[in-house]
Amino acid sequence: MKDSPYPKHPKVTCSRCGNCCSIPVVPITHKDLARIIKATGKPANKIVRFCPDSEMEYDDESGIWIKFKSGKRAMVLRKKKEKCMFLTKHYECTIYTARPQTCRTFPYSIYFKDGRDRIISEISLNKVLDCNAKRHPSIDIGAVVADVRRENREDREYHRLVEQWNKSGEKGTTADFLQYIKL
Ligand code: SF4
Ligand code: SF4
């Protein structure tokens, strides 16, 4: 795999329990998927699946929901034996430098006061799942903020694409959707 365009920075001290790569269903964007395809050479349909709302706790208004004839679905990373397909048995990520933005920013939650992600209102550690990570003493918080801004930007772009798809009359298949996002 080629070097990442992003800087490396320790974010947390962590027990490497693997919960964050096992328990959640990981929604990804077209940008995440493009990076993973480039890094792995795998086709899109071997990386993602389209997951029903029964598996995810996102509200109806979330921009992740893609409308298909069979109902709404979200594009998420595939799992293997109940864990992310890219997690090794030693709890290492095989696509570390190309991992999705949401993986890059976890377990930080950074909120902004304004809609343009300029002024930070809160930085906290995510507690949605059993995670004992602590803020790393030498963290480069600027790099984490930059990652969150990138995540928010790419989410907004992806949600606009999904919205346009959902507005179109005839709903296609998941293969049509992947073609629509050019992957
Ligand atoms: S970040 Fe949290 S959930 Fe993930 S491996 Fe570390 S301690 Fe476990
Ligand atoms: S892509 Fe990597 S960091 Fe993200 S859930 Fe999978 S193994 Fe974990």
Descriptive report:
- The chain is globular, with a radius of gyration of 17 Å.
- The strands form four sheets. It has a three-stranded antiparallel beta sheet with strand order 2-4-3.
- The chain has 183 residues and is α+β, with helices and mostly antiparallel strands.
- It has helices spanning 30-40, 101-105, 141-167, 174-180, and strands spanning 12-13, 48-52, 66-68, 71-77, 79-80, 83-84, 108-112, 120-125, 134-135.
- It has one domain.
- The protein contains four helices and nine strands; from the N terminus they run E-H-E-E-E-E-E-H-E-E-E-H-H.
- The protein is 27% helix and 19% strand.
- The site of one iron/sulfur cluster (SF4) has 11 residues, from loops.
Write the layout of secondary structure elements.
Elements: E1 12-13, H1 30-40, E2 48-52, E3 66-68, E4 71-77, E5 79-80, E6 83-84, H2 101-105, E7 108-112, E8 120-125, E9 134-135, H3 141-167, H4 174-180
Antiparallel strand pairs: 1-9, 2-4, 3-4, 5-6, 7-8
Residues 12, 14-20, 107, 131-133 line the site of one iron/sulfur cluster.
